[in-house]
């Protein structure tokens, strides 16, 4: 395997050192590799990463490019998006004009700068609550699903092998 001039030895976009401090890599990319072809390690999917603002703006405004997965070639859609195509095709972020423009005009009326400031305390409270729940989960033993013949409840096994039942599905 040949080393990439983009990455230092053992470095990838997903490596621990880059995730801890991505700024040196981002700076190097902007200066030396403003358009870099990247391979996602788990799927082997190739994509282009643009690191300069002007380049990103030009691509986003160019009608030859799409953000809508429904406009991708069939092979790409089936391989990467088939399981989420319906949800993605209805999302503002993955819509192209004129759908994007119409959806954005509807949403923008509800999210004025004043309204965002009014929402800030509630959003902060929700985020704090979720972070506390995540911290609490780290302190409790992990549960693993156990095989169960009952379809009406789920059975979990903790690390101490005791069973805990809960209604519904996982």
Overall geometry comes to extended
Largest sheet strand order: 3-4-5
Radius of gyration: 22 Å
Q: Report strand %.
A: 5-15%
The averaged pLDDT comes out at 75
Series of H and E elements? HHEEHHHHHEEE
How many E-type strands? 5
Q: Structural class of the helix and strand makeup?
A: alpha+beta
DSSP helical segment count: 7
Termini separation comes to 41 Å
- Give the low-pLDDT segments: 148-170
Instruction: Estimate percent helicity.
Output: 40-55%
Report the biggest beta sheet as strand number plus sense, adding barrel if it closes: 3 strands, antiparallel
What would you note in describing this structure?
- The chain has 170 residues and is of the alpha+beta class.
- The chain has 7 helices and 5 strands.
- Strand 3 and strand 4 (153-158) form a beta hairpin.
- Residues 148-170 have low confidence and may be disordered.
- The strands form 2 sheets. Strands 3-4-5 form a 3-stranded antiparallel beta sheet, with no helix packed on it. A two-stranded antiparallel ribbon has the order 1-2.
- Helix content is 44%, strand content 14%.
Key traits:
170 residues; two-stranded antiparallel sheet; alpha+beta; disordered C terminus; three-stranded antiparallel β-sheet
What topology emerges from the helices and strands here?
Blueprint lengths: L15 H5 L2 H10 L2 E5 L6 E5 L2 H9 L12 H8 L3 H5 L9 H10 L4 H27 L3 E3 L7 E6 L4 E5 L3
Antiparallel strand pairs: 1-2, 3-4, 4-5
